[in-house]
Amino acid sequence: MTRDLTGDFQTQRQAADQMPYPTLTVRRDRLARLARMTKHHQLEIIRAIQTDFGQRSDVEIRMAEINAVLHAIRHTRLHLWHWMRPWSVSMPWRLTPARARIAPQPLGIVGVISPWNYPWSLALMPIVDAFAAGNVVMLKPSEHSPATSNLLQRLVAQYFTLEEFKVVEGGVEVARRFSELPFDHLVFTGSTAVGRQVAQAAAVNLTPVTLELGGKSPAIVAGDADFDKAATDIIFGKGMNGGQTCIAPDYVLVESRHISAVVKALSEAIQRQRPDDHAATHAINAAHQQRLDAMLQEAHDHGCRIIDHGPHAPALVIDPHRELQVMREEIFGRCLPVIGVSDMSAAIRYVNARPHPLALYAFTHDKGLQQQLLQTTRSGALVSNATLLHHAVPSLPFGGVGESGMGAYHGRHGFERFSHLRGIFYQAKRSASRMLYPPYRRWLIKLLGLG
């Protein structure tokens, strides 16, 4: 496998060297083939993902896996011609009439290590941006979603040459060796713990990395919020994909005097959105299910009030102790702690006392509180009166900060992430700037304010 990885990498390196700046036509063609691969094999994609999860809503697969990729490709192909154009930058008066520009150029080979929770879209979304920037790509999909990973390998081989796009299947050892390859950029989506290992492996080759991690994304419900609407939005975010979403609400903060009303609204929202098991998504495997069951059991054993409407619906855990597993780890499942605080200042202090989250959800129409959250907290994204929907905006950067990630992509931000923004300087035929060369004249030193 090591020889295969190295050989495939060298094949792509030669291809990248032979075509260091693919034209707009080449890039748009690669994106078009990526779209055809996704659009023409929708039923196979749905079957593969359902096989990996045991059960997952086909509506959610179409919405979060298939349409997400197609919309990203459509947006990118529409704007790519503009993103590729070099642009002029201002020139200090001392150097005029010289000119300066910035020209985005491909990096070369981009490696992508993708997760199991959205095994199609989170594998291909960074590749959309990498192709737009003119790179070739190697992908290592998750071993925890083997049916989808195998489908990716088979379809990519049909639609792309090895020189353009290669899928590498395998387990932990393959992922480790993959992250040690001297890519020009490496993207990893997954847990913070594994992200550290990937960054360490990449550092040996000084490979720049984009780490899309996670963390405990809070939802703050202020007293002025419409509790029913807030609960509906929170349960939508928590219920999607069985809570196995990096930007899912991980816990809810609400003023203690409103906690009963918010819990009631959340419980009713669960019953409306997840009335039975038909549209639910199961845990990816038995080990993950056991971990989630252990979280709930520990909370129950410590006297927490738990409102549970079914084995695959969001389960509310009221005021859990902060030392419980459900409060120490990213849940990545159906458990949803609801925590009472004295006021919104206390909620902000609670959030700031913990690692910066990938998303911070604020349910309030109070402009002052929204501004306070913007200025006094840090998170990958700040979202008001909604959950998850910011991920569907292709012109917004998507990424974390601190333990929730490093770097961002999507749309133009992804194009620039996977490009080298090369500085270009054009000296004029007649330029006074040569007077800056030695020997240094006293009048020039005075003019420049150097003495």
Structural notes for this entry:
Keywords: NAD, Oxidoreductase. This is Aldehyde dehydrogenase. Pfam families: Aldedh. By secondary structure, the chain is an alpha/beta fold. It folds into two domains: 2-213 and 401-424, Aldehyde Dehydrogenase, Chain A, domain 1, CATH 3.40.605; 217-395, Aldehyde Dehydrogenase, Chain A, domain 2, CATH 3.40.309. 44% of the residues lie in helices and 18% in strands. The protein has 16 helices and 18 strands. The chain has helices at 2-18, 24-39, 42-53, 58-84, 121-132, 146-159, 172-179, 192-203, 227-239, 259-273, 286-301, 325-328, 344-352, 367-376, 411-417, 442-447, and strands at residues 87-89, 99-106, 109-113, 136-140, 165-167, 185-189, 209-212, 217-221, 249-255, 305-308, 315-318, 335-341, 359-363, 381-384, 398-399, 405-406, 408-409, 419-426. A seven-stranded mixed beta sheet has the order 10-11-12-9-8-13-14, sandwiched between helices. It has a six-stranded mixed beta sheet with strand order 5-4-3-6-7-16, sandwiched between helices. Helix 4 (58-84) runs parallel beside helix 5 (121-132). It is globular and about 80 Å long. The termini are far apart.
